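Reopening closed ticket. The problem is back. First fold of the pair:
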Amino acid sequence: MTHKTYFEVRDYECDLQGIVNHSVYLNYMEHSRHQFLKDAGGDFAALHNEGLDLVVVHADVSYHASLRSGDRFVVELTVTLSGKVRLLFHQKIIRISDEKSMVTAIMTVAGVRAGRPVRIDGVLVLPT
């Protein structure tokens, strides 16, 4: 299943060159992961309150082109379980006007409880 979250670039997300700053793309992708979990019936805050945190442990990000103020785009996300404690979020940022791939990423997220890795297989039910 591919989850989609839609956005529009805001002026303050752009740097001096008039393009979205590289770090802002990480925010877009994080929001997309949170929205994915919410749409799947979960909640990052509720998981934290239950003692389970989902923590990014590795980010593999490739920047292909730059978004500009006013650009509308979508973050597409698929997720797979990697072992017993990690999720792989495969994410793409695509500009809507021309369907151009702007950024691709694989975000590795681990389940952590009290600072130690914890099994998340069986704890999180991933939509299919």
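Second fold of the pair, where the issue appears:
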Amino acid sequence: MRWFRRNAAAASRFRLLYATDLHGADRTFRKLLNAALAYEAHAVLIGGDLTGKVLVPFVRQPHGGWLAAIDGEPRLFPDDRAAEAAASELADQGVYVLRCDPDTVERLDGDPAFRDAVFLRLMQERLAHWASLAQERLAPRGIRFLWNCGNDDPLELDPFLADLPGAEFLEGRVVPLVGRVRVASVGAANLTPWRCPRDLPEEELARRIDAVVAQIPEPDLRFAVFNFHCPPYGSGLDLAPRLDETLKPVVVGGVVETVPVGSTAVRAAIEQYAPQLGLHGHIHESRGAHRLGRTLCLNPGSEYREGVLRAALIDFDGDAVRNYLLVSA
């Protein structure tokens, strides 16, 4: 009887596909699953901001059809088929559609608690669908699917995501990735002008980070991956438009002025603990790579509204990052 030895070099290699800031965009998520298969990834990780920001009511009309306001313009869809096509197109952009009657629209307008509850339900439905797709398409091929929330995502999502089959929820945890490589995850960010659900003062963010990193055995810190949604301050991965008092971008000489808006707590943690890799997002327009000491920091960026997938492929050889590539689809 013949026997075969497994190729040790091939067995020691591991490929991670990382994306972030999908903001509910169905098309971008489908592209992510396709990319996992095309690039032969061993694991997929979404770094945060899973949910969308816009809800569009489709209001049933007395004589049939649906009326909606899309980008401020009224649109009448004559039948269910036309409405479904429009709703699918909006979902590809990260928008939630609610089919309802005029009374519900009035309540959405006047009852913030009701509006938040509807938003949360629609978010949960889409995320449950995504987890089901990942389980259907990735799990049979042995591809792990991991995700975390970001500062835009409601806190109420955490227990829901923790119980979803087909996905590993990472917030506040350290999970093994390959060999001695562990992923430590914090989805919060430093304070923004919009006071998002997971915005924190830098001091509190630092405490959150320290509590998570403490779960990693000290000898393995050098192999760690910090999946921190917010990029480190002054890394070039955190450049965003400077805003005036009305939250409009400041334009100087016809060019939008940019400033670093990342987290000093994240930077301090990277400098103190020196993990081998930092995975970040949050600032969609700051796609790139930067080294802080020995730590490779990546922000793949985001163009979810356009249906473009921005992602990073990271190859590990044994316990160490061997190389990376920023990709688009």
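Update: turned out to be a display glitch only; the data is intact. The domain at 13-51+115-328 is CATH 3.60.21.10 (Purple Acid Phosphatase; chain A, domain 2). The radius of gyration is 21 Å. Please close again.
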